[in-house]
């Protein structure tokens, strides 16, 4: 659970002194003879007690001076293990022999958030897995009438349903290749957002500078140096009934990125602890425009989502290639839970077991089966070689291929803030063959 630190301070010394003051003074008054000297002593004692009480009240205000500015302290721990069961000879000969696998802390994060005014919030989140890296570090201005909600700092750009759903709540261990390639991840900039008609129509747009020294984005499979991104996203819950038990989500996004000559990419096959299955550098790139579509739904314990995206790459010389990708995934809770949907943000949230497992003889927790198919196609880039494309391994046909990934997943949520995940991943690289992985995750967030 989040550790809430708002409300009353931990100690209230002054209240105790008020009690003792009202109790002691009458006793002193009853015991004191009616003489002028003792009356003066009584007045002096009262004055001293009042002074001590005031000093304790002043000290109380300094007991936890930051208490009123922090609403949540939290974090997450995700411990992953990847097993490479089998891989084709061509994959290992060209990319790596053997393909990488093993254990890692996928995410190890701590954060603090709160408000310094009713209209001004903040959040600071750092990731310590593999070195310190900025995640969400921003200010948020809100609830100022017609003025839109404004975020300034380092945070995710408004691109992709799967990207904007927290890694605590995604259905499978890794996001799709579509999200990894098309979403820039965390970038520093400014964003304006607004909801209309009781969150039936939501829009967000912003400008982001990738040249800001904020650490490398977590999930992006593409880099642009020193240039500005312009991005926007529109979402609508076409259907939202029975407190989210029936949902139909539609969304669309746009992303413009500028480059300093090179567009470098590298994508794992939806398994984080392994090698890139496509990788290289496209040369003479001026800018790119990406368009994305989102569809998702919830029907009781079943849920479904899918996205399509296309990137058009504009170069200063020669051919202008494009890359397209899509995925579809679904899941069902065997124990009857629902996947919570947020109308305003257009993303998914925390699963809460109907009968938590808190020890022997308690409930089973929540159990979920899930599956996904995804694909990405780089074959249009092959024609740029040799002058316009430099492969990271092998030939252009091998490094800029089509990749298809099939994933089956089993999730167990013993309680709302813990999860165990098991994924079986079959990745097919069109030019070099396929590989099979089993991955597992133990996750706790608080």
UniProtKB/TrEMBL annotation:
> Which InterPro entries is this protein grouped with?
Porin_dom_sf, Porin_O/P
- The answer to keyword Coiled coil applying to this record is yes
- What UniProt keywords apply to this chain's record, in alphabetical order? Coiled coil, Signal
What sections of the sequence does the record tag as coiled-coil?
A: 35-62
Could you list the residue ranges that cross the membrane?
A: none
Q: Which domain of life is it from?
A: Bacteria
Keyword Hydrolase assigned: no
- The signal sequence is 1-36
Q: What is this protein called?
A: Porin
The species this protein was found in: Thiohalocapsa halophila
């Amino acid at each position: 659970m989040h550790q809430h630190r708002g409300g009353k301070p931990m100690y209230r010394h002054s209240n105790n002194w008020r009690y003792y003051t009202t109790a002691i003074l009458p006793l002193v008054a009853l015991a004191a003879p009616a003489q002028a000297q003792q009356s003066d002593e009584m007045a002096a004692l009262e004055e001293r007690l009042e002074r001590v009480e005031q000093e304790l009240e002043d000290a109380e205000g300094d007991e936890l001076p930051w208490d009123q500015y922090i609403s949540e302290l939290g974090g997450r721990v995700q411990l992953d293990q990847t097993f490479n069961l089998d891989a084709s000879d061509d994959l290992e000969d060209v990319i790596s022999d053997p393909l990488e696998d093993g254990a890692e802390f996928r995410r190890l994060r701590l954060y603090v958030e709160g408000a310094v005014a009713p209209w001004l919030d903040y959040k600071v989140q750092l990731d310590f897995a593999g070195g310190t890296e900025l995640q969400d570090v921003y200010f948020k201005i809100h609830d100022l009438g017609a003025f839109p909600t404004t975020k300034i700092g380092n945070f995710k750009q408004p691109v992709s349903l799967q990207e904007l759903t927290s890694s605590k709540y995604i259905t499978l261990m890794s996001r799709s290749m579509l999200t990894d390639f098309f979403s820039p991840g965390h970038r520093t900039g400014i964003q304006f957002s607004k909801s209309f008609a009781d969150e039936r129509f939501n829009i967000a747009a912003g400008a982001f500078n990738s040249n800001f020294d904020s650490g490398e984005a977590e999930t992006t499979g593409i880099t642009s140096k020193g240039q500005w991104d312009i991005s926007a996203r529109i979402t609508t819950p076409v259907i939202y009934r029975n407190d989210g038990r029936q949902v139909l989500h539609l969304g669309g996004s746009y992303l413009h990125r500028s480059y300093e000559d090179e567009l470098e990419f590298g994508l794992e096959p939806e398994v984080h602890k392994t090698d890139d299955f496509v990788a290289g550098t496209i040369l003479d790139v001026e800018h790119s425009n990406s368009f994305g579509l989102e569809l998702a739904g919830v029907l009781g314990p079943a849920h479904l989502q899918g996205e399509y995206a296309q990137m058009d790459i504009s170069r200063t010389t020669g051919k202008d290639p494009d890359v397209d990708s899509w995925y579809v995934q679904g899941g069902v809770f065997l124990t009857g839970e629902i996947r919570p949907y947020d109308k305003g943000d257009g993303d998914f949230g925390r699963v809460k077991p109907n009968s938590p497992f808190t020890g022997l003889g308690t409930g089973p927790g929540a159990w979920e089966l899930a599956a996904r198919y995804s694909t990405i196609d780089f074959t249009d880039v092959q024609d740029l070689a040799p002058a316009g494309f430099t492969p990271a391994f092998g030939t252009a046909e091998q490094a800029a291929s089509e990749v298809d990934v099939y994933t089956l997943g089993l999730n167990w949520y013993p309680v709302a803030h813990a999860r165990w995940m098991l994924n079986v991943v079959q990745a097919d690289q069109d030019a070099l063959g396929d590989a099979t992985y089993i991955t597992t995750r133990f996750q706790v967030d608080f």
